[in-house]
Amino acid sequence: MTFSRLTIALDIMGGDNGPHVTLPAALKALQENPQLYFILCGDEKIISQFMSPQKSAIRDRIEIQHCSDHVAMDERPSSALRNKKDSSMRRALERVENGDADACVSAGNTGALLAIAYHVLKTLPGIDRPALVSALPTDDHHKLFLLDLGANVNCDSETLFQYAVMGSVLAEEVAGIENPRVALLNVGEEQIKGNDQVKFTAQLLQDAPGINYTGFVEGNDIFTNCADVVVTDGFVGNIALKACEGLATLVLEESKRVSQENWWTKLLAKIALPLLRKIYRRVNPDQYNGASLIGLRGIVVKSHGNASSDAFLFAIKEAEQEIQRQVPKKIKDKIESVLMERS
Amino acid sequence: MTFSRLTIALDIMGGDNGPHVTLPAALKALQENPQLYFILCGDEKIISQFMSPQKSAIRDRIEIQHCSDHVAMDERPSSALRNKKDSSMRRALERVENGDADACVSAGNTGALLAIAYHVLKTLPGIDRPALVSALPTDDHHKLFLLDLGANVNCDSETLFQYAVMGSVLAEEVAGIENPRVALLNVGEEQIKGNDQVKFTAQLLQDAPGINYTGFVEGNDIFTNCADVVVTDGFVGNIALKACEGLATLVLEESKRVSQENWWTKLLAKIALPLLRKIYRRVNPDQYNGASLIGLRGIVVKSHGNASSDAFLFAIKEAEQEIQRQVPKKIKDKIESVLMERS
């Protein structure tokens, strides 16, 4: 099934750079895909100013929803949920909930997006908690879906099991990987390794017929073609990914510092730094790819807070893909069939 | 207090390259420090062959303890503990336990070393579990001690609290940092963030007078000067550090691959790769630094399995430092005083 019309609600005000990044990305997306329609949530004046000079073929495919407020990047999720009823983020999610839009994309405050999306959209039947998932690049340019990246820091084995099912659907539908290999993140590959939670989840997955569970993988495996889906709880996933971000930053900073040592290293660095940056753009998943919030009754894609227009465009395309592939419905069907087979 | 004689028991057979790496490192350490004595545990023939051509000033400071066995790198810890009674690893630890040596250094199987050291040496009074700790380099070449790196994957808040005390002693004694800042690894810096375990540990640390607890830090902070000691459980610590190792490997591989694309990138890479490797040697803590197993009634330093002679020498020096500074005694004193103030 292909959709003749895709409607995405955009949180125009979200992210470190708000409209400066989101509006150019929206324009580019509209130019590239004639089936795309946007509901642009945010300050009407800013949006109009940017969009009114555009051709009517573009303007006809946007609706502006003025919002009097927005969620600050450092705002507490609980406060945003309680107080920001007319924020661009919340309105965009509401337009998904009431069926006007097929998906929502935001570069805003992750914690607030999680809290408001969970509140507004609710989880799918059979899913206790949503998860944040992103595709990491691996050594052979294969995609590896890692979840949860921080939606839930207290996960039990049942939640991890559901994450495995959701990740499996995403890998199959979005990346087109047939019968995706699902692994659990652990401190070793042997069955006896790990904490109680991960050991018990392994048992659940071994016994689940609809899932191609392949065992444990270690931290260093997540950048290799070890599996298509790697499951962990949000505490570990968040810290592991951020530690990688920290290392990437350190290496770039260190390269810059080394480059100042003498004329020779200055020359080396002039040559090496662009190469290094090129590689990092490829390996820094958080900056480059959108992260999807899955397990909800609607599609939500999160772009990085300091995303560039290109990265925000990438997140929009991710949302288009999830709409086309009807990801929430597929997750619902899969979890139903897995749970039925299990019982 | 300075020691006129330092005796270290070395597991000569441990590590991917065994005696080829450990013996040259031992020789260099003896040449550099005339106060150093070694008990070399391993295959007598191999050790003698290497050591007999040396000057008597060197030979007089070694004792060879022949061991008929060694622990394989992929051996199960439980099996090594049960079956490898005459292994070089176990004998080296026993020489610490019976007081012949002041410390043990091994590049062998980490799991087996943890299990055998715990069994042979036992923990200090007031300490439930030992921890594996390493110093990470940060953006301003400051040392940050991260623990636990995988000794215990099921840690409760009390264990994390003890880790904070032990890390604090190590930072003060080994790195000479006065009143070291101790932080907890978490998914956010705000007090409301995190799982139950980390929140409860924060409460314990806030109330502990002898510890300079500074709050939560995130994954990307561990390569910055955010704190002197960062505490987490062995599951998270192991996965975070290995994920960084995986990223480092990916970037190096990707640089090599990019370098094959055309003559220009080939040239760039020829220049960039050595710079990149130089930086990685500095930022790859696991490869470069030894990791200490602390909380035991004796000093145990673990060198990386595929350590070079230089890295193994570094681990020996780490052990020398811990002997000089009487780390186990200081940990014992500190935990006693903290627990007394707490009760």
Automatic annotation (TrEMBL), chains A, B:
Record-listed E.C. numbers: 2.3.1.274
DNA damage as UniProt keyword: no
A GO-annotated cellular component: cytoplasm
InterPro entries linked: FA_synthesis, Phospholipid_synth_PlsX-like
Biological process terms in GO annotation: fatty acid biosynthetic process; phospholipid biosynthetic process
Superkingdom as given in the UniProt entry: Bacteria
Record protein name field: Phosphate acyltransferase
Provenance organism: Aliiglaciecola lipolytica E3
Organism phylogeny: Bacteria, Pseudomonadati, Pseudomonadota, Gammaproteobacteria, Alteromonadales
Gene of this entry: plsX
